[in-house]
Design brief:
single chain, alpha+beta, OB fold (Dihydrolipoamide Acetyltransferase, E2P), five-stranded mixed beta barrel, 33% helix
Length: 150
Amino acid sequence: MKPRHRKMAIAAGVLLVLGAVVALVLNAFQSNLVFFYSPTQVAANEAPQGRTFRLGGLVEQGSVRRDGLVVSFVVTDTARSIPVRYEGILPDLFKEGKGVVAQGQLREGVFIAREVLAKHDENYMPPEAAQALQAAAKASAPAAAPEKKP
């Protein structure tokens, strides 16, 4: 093989290996990417089916049911509600009426959470959850009646 052909073969091999490495890294990144959805978005089937995502909103008052380590509760954004099931120990700050973000998958209309995060103080709410709550409140607010002029 001529030196020129050998250099081209080495360059092609390096490019092939580099392309494979980039493809593997992008595939790993895509499979670990977790998006946030509100209960309204989940009810509208915007959340991925069979993939992990985050569900955020408020824990609905009176919805928490405990059976040993299995906890069931409802997450709402004041417009829609999604039932959640979690097996494990909940954070100390988990309470009804407070903000929560759960990570898991939707199965047969129930969100099966693998991780539950509660807000850490009275003023904190994840920005995505706050935006989802504001959007749901605006969507569910009745349209203002036009003013009558005398």
